[in-house]
Design a protein that fits this description.
With 622 residues, this protein is α/β, with parallel strands linked by helices. The protein is 50% helix and 9% strand. It has a nine-stranded mixed beta sheet with strand order 9-6-5-10-1-11-14-2-15, with helices on both faces. Helix 8 packs antiparallel against helix 9.
């Protein structure tokens, strides 16, 4: 059983477990393993869901946005756009019985097994109209819909007493000015509906693999995390008193639902609880709104993973799994190889790794889905209403251009995460040429140019971006990075300090300052800068990488190993961090682990000739 709690965050969970409010997740942790699960970039919800389902990055699975431009008009991205098979399709082709509920995809997936789309429980138009009335292909097999419809819960069915568990004083809320309570009621009704249908299917059908996507935590966090304790200065006492309990109550409710799922799974089932990303909840909470265009600013790189089962290790913390490893882990538990997955089975989770002796079946052909106009309109209206995309007309030429640009921008992120900077740059160059007035495209291209050592070209791009309205603090940061790459560290520090003074709350600024100090071998100042960054952002992989290098310079190899492992857990695709970790482990006499770290570094960046020679020498001496 795979349970996805979108947006779940360990920093919220741990205090609730300690308070006895999440006993069912606690039982999984105590009986199995737990980890922080690194997500992938960019954090666009359809891309994350497709990567979780397939174990592949966006350039392979092809899902990069909510909407796509096709034949001069916009349409929602559908399952036919996903070029890689999801794990349940592979399992179904292998003869296993699958049930998937709440997954954010439409139409219902091709292939064998039961599939209930998230849209079966969703309400449009402010919670007044059931979307499934306009989306006929939300359930597979279609005949199941008649059985499941009576299990749906309508928002008005929730009593005021039930809502008091989340908002103890709903009478304080002026419904005409603040729609928060109505939204929460809608989300709770949708979540309850999904749970009712899931448990009905699990209780009455025979299954080998069940997958439940639940996004109540994510939705509540986006709307109410700003009111979660401790109170921030920008939140009034009245708002804090009214809404401070919502996030914790949502986690408690999710754990109650998990308890019933575990009961239906039975004690011998292997169970994974994961989230597609984490959530900023402490000092790192941004000032932007949690809903709409600033929503992704609230996401954190690290989500959660908890796993228990007959052959799973007990009560252990494991390092380094990523979102891409979930599907290969599920397939491996059934003895099936993951094919061309970008992830790998989490071997460290098992006492004894399952025998993987079956090749993945040939994926089913993915025919193009033609959506009727009402399906297109219903999905687009829903995405706009939820703040996922800006309002648009499906035939608007400007909107189709923007959709194509967003897709290419997201694809450049994916390619960069593979280390494929040249094709990423080619995409961005075309974007900058098409949209010369968009500063963020030029800024991203400048960052990639700096990574290739092309600092003069980067500075020209930054100058252009400043003229186009790029905020000065951000321009100063990127220029500082360019000067540092050229070896002009004094100018780099001057720009970075100026950026910090003009805008003190900037995630990443102190990590950049620390990098310059490392170049100058000013280790004490570098350490202070990296620790200052971690005070603002406890999930900054670059800050931990910097601390690891400072510790290496001081020959503190245990400290270096700890910091570097934390950095790699936060951001796996760092060849330099894996390489440095290898040298730290080698100094500690842990040669086998060091070789593994060197191998991973070379997988991420095969161009490291000296490291390849070093690894060959280690193997020869072993």
């Amino acid at each position: 059983m795979l349970v996805v709690w979108s947006g779940a965050e360990w920093r919220v969970i741990h205090p609730l477990i300690d308070a006895g409010r999440m006993p069912h997740l606690q039982s999984i942790v105590e009986q199995g393993v737990m980890a922080e699960l690194a997500t992938v970039q960019p954090q666009v919800a359809p891309l994350l869901a497709a990567s979780l389902a397939s174990g592949r990055l966006g350039d392979k699975h092809g899902v990069l946005s909510y909407v796509a431009a096709v034949d001069g008009r916009l349409r929602p991205v559908t399952v036919s756009d996903m070029a890689s098979p999801p794990m349940w399709e592979t399992l179904g082709q292998a003869g296993l019985r699958t049930i998937v509920t709440g997954w954010p995809a439409y139409p219902a997936e091709i292939g064998p097994g039961v599939f209930v789309s998230q849209f079966f429980t969703r309400f449009g138009a402010g919670g007044r109209h059931a979307l499934h009335a306009r989306l006929p292909r939300v359930v597979r097999p279609a005949a199941l819909a008649e059985r499941l419809v009576p299990l749906r819960v309508e928002p008005p069915e929730l009593s005021l007493e039930e809502l008091r568990h989340f908002v103890p004083r709903p009478d304080r809320i002026h419904q005409g000015r603040d729609p928060s309570l109505a939204k929460l009621a809608t989300w709770l009704a949708e979540s309850t509906s999904n749970h009712a249908m899931t448990t009905s299917l699990l209780d009455s059908d025979v299954w080998d693999f069940a997958c439940v996507w639940e996004d109540l935590i994510d939705r509540a966090s986006h709307a109410f995390m700003q009111f979660h304790p401790p109170r921030r200065a920008c939140v009034s006492f009245e708002q804090f008193e009214t809404y401070q309990n919502v996030v914790a109550a949502t986690y408690h409710f999710a754990d109650m639902m998990l308890g019933r799922l575990l009961e239906l799974a039975g004690p011998q089932a292997t169970v994974l609880v994961v989230s597609d990303h984490g959530f900023r909840c402490e000092k790192d909470r941004p000032l932007t709104s949690g809903i709409g265009r600033g929503a992704a600013d609230w996401h954190r790189q690290l989500g959660i993973l908890a796993m228990r089962g007959p052959d799973v290790r007990r009560d252990e913390w494991i390092w380094g799994p990523t979102l891409l490893d979930v599907a290969p882990t599920v397939l491996a538990s059934f003895g099936i190889a993951p094919g061309d997955s970008d992830g790998r089975a989490i071997e460290r989770a098992w006492q004894r790794m399952p025998t993987v002796d079956r090749a993945a079946p040939t994926p089913l052909p993915r025919n193009s889905d033609t959506l009727i106009d009402d399906e297109v309109q219903a999905l687009c209206e829903y995405y706009v209403g939820e703040g996922f995309v800006e309002p648009f007309a499906v035939h608007d030429p400007q909107a189709t251009k923007q959709a194509r640009d967003a897709r290419d921008f997201n694809l450049s992120y994916v390619l960069q995460s593979r280390g494929a900077l040249v094709p990423a740059i080619e995409l961005l160059e075309a974007l900058v040429e098409r949209r010369p007035g968009v500063a963020r495209f030029a800024l991203q291209l400048a960052n990639y140019r700096i990574a290739l050592g092309e600092t003069d070209a980067a500075r020209e791009l930054i100058d252009t971006a400043i003229r186009q309205g790029l905020p000065l603090p951000m321009a100063q940061r990127v220029l500082g990075q360019a000067f540092s790459a050229q070896g002009n560290h004094a100018a780099a520090l001057e720009l970075l300090f100026a950026s910090e003074q003009s805008h003190p709350v900037q995630l990443g600024i102190h990590a950049q300052i620390g990098e310059v100090y490392i170049s100058l071998e000013r280790w004490d100042e570098a350490e202070r800068a990296f620790k200052k960054e971690l005070q603002q952002d406890a999930a900054c992989a670059l800050a931990y990488f910097g601390l690891g290098r400072v510790a290496m310079a001081r020959e503190l190899y245990e400290d270096a190993t700890e910091s570097l492992l934390e950095s790699i857990t936060l951001w796996h695709a760092q060849p330099a961090a894996h390489r440095t970790l290898g040298f730290a482990l080698q100094e500690l006499g842990r040669v086998d682990e060091a070789m593994h770290a060197f191998e991973r570094s070379l997988q991420l960046d095969p161009r490291q000739t000296e490291l390849r020679r070093h690894l060959a020498a280690l193997r020869a001496a072993d």
